[in-house]
Amino acid sequence: MEIKGKKAVVVGGASGMARSSAEQLAAKGASVSILDLASSAGDEVAKSLGGSFFPVDVTDWEGAEQALAGAVEAMGGLHIAVNTAGGGIAKRTLTKEGPHPLQDFQKVIDLNLVATFNLNRLQASHMSKNEPEDGERGVIIDTASIAAFEGQIGQVAYTAAKAGIAGMTFTMARDLGSLGIRVLTIAPSLFSTGLTEGIPDEYADVLTKDAAFPKRMGRPEEYGRLAVAIVETPMLNGSTIRLDAGQRFAPK
Ligand SMILES: NC(=O)c1ccc[n+]([C@@H]2O[C@H](COP(=O)([O-])OP(=O)(O)OC[C@H]3O[C@@H](n4cnc5c(N)ncnc54)[C@H](O)[C@@H]3O)[C@@H](O)[C@H]2O)c1
Question: What is the mean pLDDT of the chain?
């Protein structure tokens, strides 16, 4: 899909990987709306791109529906969706204090998996109204993690949630194929973003030492570049693409 002239929503776009995606999509001529927490820098980022900001907590299912509808109305349609809002906790299945609290597990599933699916189903519905261009109506990009495949000790809830996102990608691509809507997921290793800014350099070196090359944290613009390539490459569909410098997470 050619990006110029298309309408994009970037969820989590106030920071990190989504922010870079929003910037790169705007630089290629897309209209961009940012959906992010009210407390985020979403307004400032959206303004710098000539777009609009729609504050939302993605775990407010109806609020997310309304924010998305507002963005689509403001732009006059939707072709591209990049979804990164998410995060995890550090808790083992069982500790001396007892079993993993179920409500904590549920919260991580809601924030990552249910919120992503809620947005995806609504994004697909908006995209289905587009006139197809070369058969194509839209592209949805979600965000997992390589923890979906090699979760580290203490990442059980996060792994389950991200594996759910990776797992639904191919099925959703099949569900939406007849409409000309593609679905892909990017699974990053450790990236240098708002989520990881507190990690000291020496610890980041340890966390990336098992990468094949380069042995460093990823840069948000590398995610953005992949997001752009996904949009521009119609043969890419249904895959979860590892963006990880050949890294496999160690147990801890
Ligand atoms: N940074 C990493 O090392 C890394 C690695 C693998 C996967 N990920 C995944 O990438 C995504 C985070 O992106 P990032 O690393 O660019 O982080 P980031 O913190 O820079 O950006 C995340 C954005 O999402 C927003 N957000 C968080 N919770 C939200 C909510 N409930 N509703 C609406 N917006 C919300 C934040 O305000 C922020 O602007 C997450 O899904 C995370 O699991 C990150």
Answer: 97
Whether the per-residue pLDDT at 39 is higher than 90: the answer is yes
Residue 195 lies in a domain: yes
17 lines ligand 1 (CB under 6 A): yes
- Residues in the chain, overall count: 252
Q: Which range of residues forms the domain containing residue 72?
A: 7-243
pLDDT digits (tens, 9 = 90+) for 181-231: 999 999 999 999 998 988 998 989 988 999 999 999 999 999 999 999 999
Q: Are strands 94-95 and 98-99 parallel, antiparallel or unpaired?
A: antiparallel
- Ligand 1 center to residue 238 CA distance, Å? 22
Task: Record the pTM.
Answer: 0.98
231, part of any domain:
yes
* Strand runs labelled E in 158-225: 181-188
Task: Please provide the DSSP assignment of 104-150 as one string.
Answer: HHHHHHIIIIIHHHHHHHHHHHHHTTSPPBTTB-EEEEEE--GGGTS
User: Quick one: tokens of 159?
Assistant: 């792994």
| Domains identified in the chain, total number | 1
Q: Give 112 Cα–ligand 1 centroid separation in angstroms.
A: 10
Residue at 2 is within a domain:
no
The CB of 143 under 6 Å from ligand 1? The reply is yes
Ligand 1 within 6 A of CB of 193: yes
